Amino acid sequence: MLVTELSSGKRIVDYRRNCRMIPASLTKLITTASALRIHGPEACFRTEIGYTGSIHNKELYGDLVVLGSGDPSIDSHYIAEDSIRFKTFVCETVSRAGITRIRGKIIVDASVFRPADSSSSWLYEDLGEYYGASLYGFNIHDNRIDIYLRNEGNKILLHHMQPSEVEIELINELKPGEKNSWHINGAPGEKKRRLRGTLLTKRRREMRCMMDIPDPAGYIATAIRKQLQKEGVKIEGPSEARYDYLPEWHGSVKFLSFYHSRSLEQLVRETNRRSINLWAEAFMNCLDENIPKSFDGGYNRLLQYWETVDQFDPKQISLFDGSGLSPKNRITPNLLEVVLLEMGNRKKADNAVFYNSLPLAGQEGSVQHFTTPQSMKARLKSGSMFGVQGYAGYAQIGGKDVTIVLLANDFVNVQSMRKTMLEALQTLSGETEQHKKSDSYHKRKSRSTKRKKS
Length: 454
Known about the structure:
Layout: E1 2-5, E2 11-14, H1 27-39, E3 46-51, E4 54-56, E5 59-61, E6 64-67, H2 85-96, E7 101-102, E8 106-109, E9 144-152, E10 155-162, E11 169-177, E12 181-185, E13 192-200, E14 207-212, H3 216-230, E15 234-235, E16 239-242, H4 247-252, E17 254-260, H5 264-274, H6 277-285, H7 295-306, E18 317-318, E19 330-331, H8 333-342, H9 349-357, E20 377-385, E21 388-397, E22 400-409, H10 414-453
Parallel strand pairs: 5-7, 6-8, 7-15, 8-16, 11-13
Antiparallel strand pairs: 1-2, 1-22, 3-6, 3-17, 4-5, 9-10, 9-14, 12-13, 18-19, 20-21, 21-22
Helix pairs in contact: 1-5, 1-6, 1-9, 5-9, 6-7
Keywords: Carboxypeptidase, Hydrolase, Protease
EC number: 3.4.16.4
GO molecular function, one term: serine-type D-Ala-D-Ala carboxypeptidase activity
C-alpha cells in the first residue's frame, strides 16, 4: 500500500514498495499513459479503403481493399453510435467512387499486427471468452459474438448468434443444472469453439453468453460483400482475409478514403472505465514503429520512453501483454506510483485526459461498487484475477491530492480482501481528517491565547 502527496512527493503510507506483484488490469495504467504520452490525446486510428487495378466506366478491374490499422473500436459495443458505422462508410466510399461493378475480390488485410501476439501468454481458460478475444490487424464488434441460448426441456439449445454471419463451429456441451456456470474455449485463429457447463434448469427465457470472433477480417470481408450486393453493386470475386504482410502488394493499393476512429482521448477513457482488454492490447502494439507491429516492439518503445523519467526502474516491470490478462506480468507498486506521479500534473493536456479517464470510485465503471469514504474523492483503476486485487489512481485526502496504490496477491477470499482495502482507506481518511481537525483546533487555541495576552 502506497499513498503519496502529489505536489511534494511526501510519503504518507509506504508498505512493501518494491515487491514485484501480479498487477492484473492495473497494467492498463501504464499502457494508456504511454499511448497518450507518445501519440497524444488527439491521435486516432486510420483504416484505409482502397483498390488494386483500375476503374473504368464505373467498373473496378481489380480488388476492393480494406487495409486494417489495428483499430480495436470499429463498430464497437462500447460506442453505441458506431455499431454499423464501418460497413456504411465502406459502401458510401464505393458509391462516391462511382463503382457499380467489382471484377475482383473484397480483401480485408489484417497484416499490420502479428496475429494473436500477446494472447500467447494468457491462460487457456481465457481463450475463446469475450474478454480474452485476440487482437488482429483488423478488429470488428470488439471481436465479440453474442450467443443466445434456451432451455428446452432437458436440452440447452442455441437459439441464435449476433452477428449471425460469423463462420464458426460451435460445439454445444451445455447441460441443465442448478446454476448458470459456463465456459467457452478455443484457440486464436481456429474456427471451432466449445461451450461447456450448466444453465439454470428453472430459467426458460433466453440467456446470453459471449465469445470471441476467431477471424474478424474474414467475417467483415464477407459482410461488406453482402452489403454491397444488397445495394446493387455486382461483385465477381469472393471475399478474402489476409494476415501476411506483403510490402509490394501494399504499395500497389490505390487510396480511396480513410475511416477514422474516435480520438485516443475517447478510447482511453472507455478503456480505463470499462477495463477493455482488446483496446489496451491495440494501444500497446501501436507503440511499435515497425510493420508488422507486435507486442514486443510496442513494449520496447514503452520502456525506452519511461526510462527517460526520473525514478523509473525497468527492473521493476516485466510485461507479457498490454491489458493485464497475463498472469506472467509483474510490476512493483513503486513503479505504478512513478507513473501516477508523472501523469499527475493536470495542467498538461495528456495528463488531464489520463486523470479523467479513471472512473470515480463508488460511481463509475469497474469501481462502481468500491465505495470510498465520503471525505475521499477518488479516481481509481481496478485490477483483479484469481488471487489478485488492486486499486490505483488519485484521491483527495484532507484537502490534499495524493496518489494511491493498493495491490494484493496470493489471498483466498476476494470479498474479505476488498473489505480490508476499503477499511485501510477509511482509517487513512479518518486519521487525516482527525489530524486536520486537531491542527485547526490548535490554531484557534493559539489565536485565542494571543488575544488574551494582548
